[in-house]
Amino acid sequence: MSQTLSLPLIGLEETFPDKLFVLHHPASDRYGCFCHDGVHGLACFSSEGGAFRFAEWIDLSGMMTKEVSFDEAREVAKQRPMPVVSLMLLDRMEDPQIHYVR
């Protein structure tokens, strides 16, 4: 007789917002990225203020915030070179939400 164990899936109730803010450098077509526990991802935020605060950490003048949909952010993350493998919601930088794109 087989048994099914009921275990909660951590983070399943958490979702990404429909609209996100990313940092973009138009002159070089570079985007703000982040590394958390060895996972590299496109940095995104649910508010423009969060993106501005993150921009202060980046040593590249001319970074601009860009509002994108979740699907657009996924596509940008997929187009980034390795080692970027995810989209990272950094509203809580100590505990980011990670969505793998490859």
Question: Could you explain how this protein is built, in words?
Answer:
With 102 residues, the chain is α+β, with helices and mostly antiparallel strands. It has one domain. The chain is built from two helices and seven strands. Strands 3-4-6-7 form a four-stranded mixed sheet, covered by helices on one side. Strands 2-1-5 form a three-stranded antiparallel sheet. The N and C termini lie far apart (38 Å). 25% of the residues are buried.
Which descriptors would you attach to this protein?
102 residues, alpha+beta, four-stranded mixed beta sheet, 2 helices, 18% helix, single chain, globular
Element layout with pairings:
Layout: E1 19-25, E2 30-31, E3 33-36, E4 39-44, H1 48-55, E5 64-69, H2 70-79, E6 84-89, E7 97-100
Parallel strand pairs: 4-6
Antiparallel strand pairs: 1-2, 1-5, 3-4, 6-7
Largest sheet: 4 strands, mixed
Structural class call reads alpha+beta
Low-pLDDT regions: 4-12
Tell me the number of structural domains.
Answer: 1
Instruction: Sum up the overall morphology in one term.
Output: globular
What's the overall average pLDDT, rounded?
89
Query: How far from one another are the termini?
Result: 38 Å
The side-by-side strand order for the widest beta sheet comes to 3-4-6-7
In brief:
By secondary structure, this protein is α+β, with helices and mostly antiparallel strands. The chain has helices at 48-55, 70-79; strands at 19-25, 30-31, 33-36, 39-44, 64-69, 84-89, 97-100.
